[in-house]
């Protein structure tokens, strides 16, 4: 069987690795002409690491990343709101939550697909399919044909938009900056991923290997706000000047060229992932806001589940099984993540106080139950 994959992101490369492991012929087409080290940090929760283990990649990824012992939420003054101790899940999954630089993860994944798999500078134009094959036409006029087409081309998927032209991204109501900077000995816990919820905005931070820090912050804003797009680290530091240390200092230590800015968007849950010989995967299928740290994790899950289905039965039934196994779970994550983003971006002091006190009152058994659901995948 021959498979074409559109998009050489995390989901596309994991799918290529998984399907090549089944002996399939795989070609990955990527529209960029040069693969550059881009992005900032990325969290990989236990479910993603379990998926990477199925692909034979977990050990290599863990060695590149930084293990985390907990996921914490703090208030404006640095007081604990929620402490999600990942050791609670050791009997189920082990302590395998970690953070890694996206570019380093991408480079590692590239090293685990067969030579000649990746074709650069190929922008998808349209696809055609019949009962036997699916044909892809690129903007340069070239074509290719395969038994299956996997759309792994992200939230703005050109493949999805051809099939579902109304499935356009929706704005979440807040904008985001990210950066990776040198750790100058700031006073914070390097063993956890911490996120601060303040009326001024939300700020998250975690240590990376190599004496680096990955941080991000989210602020309520109108879509495409020019003032937000041109915000400098100094302006961000001033905005967060009354939030607990070392947040203002970390922002002030960031260089303008290190900033990555974008509005936060997702897509509404789809009612279908499979269209004949075409299957949507990763953000092309279920792009979510980053509030649960599950975007890349769900793409990895997709790749593993799709390969598992194709290993068991013929392609038509396999795609139907993939759709059944992935739709409900990913829809729930989209909805929960969007809700979490709305609640965490509250600006009114009394609402923030009420929210924080309610979260502090949650018992550990409930937190453990929620974490178990998230990390419990039907691999």
Question: How are the secondary structure elements laid out?
Answer:
Layout: E1 2-6, H1 10-20, E2 25-29, E3 41-44, H2 46-54, H3 58-64, E4 66-67, E5 70-74, E6 80-85, E7 98-101, H4 102-110, E8 118-119, E9 124-129, E10 134-138, E11 143-146, E12 148-151, H5 158-163, E13 170-182, E14 192-198, E15 201-208, E16 212-220, H6 226-229, H7 233-239, H8 247-252, E17 260-266, E18 274-275, E19 278-280, H9 283-286, H10 295-312, H11 315-344, H12 349-360, H13 364-375
Parallel strand pairs: 1-2, 1-12, 2-8, 5-14, 12-19
Antiparallel strand pairs: 3-7, 4-7, 5-6, 9-10, 10-11, 13-16, 13-17, 14-15, 15-16, 18-19
Helix pairs in contact: 1-4, 1-10, 2-3, 2-10, 10-11
Overview of this protein structure:
By secondary structure, this protein is an alpha/beta fold. The chain has a single domain, classed as FAD/NAD(P)-binding domain, CATH 3.50.50.60. Helices cover 36% and strands 27% of the residues. The protein has 13 helices and 19 strands. Strands 6-5-14-15-16-13-17 form a 7-stranded mixed β-sheet. A 6-stranded mixed β-sheet has the order 8-2-1-12-19-18. It has a 3-stranded antiparallel β-sheet with strand order 3-7-4. β5 and β6 form a beta hairpin. α1 packs parallel to α4 and α2 crosses α3. The protein is globular. 43% of the residues are buried. The mean pLDDT is 95.
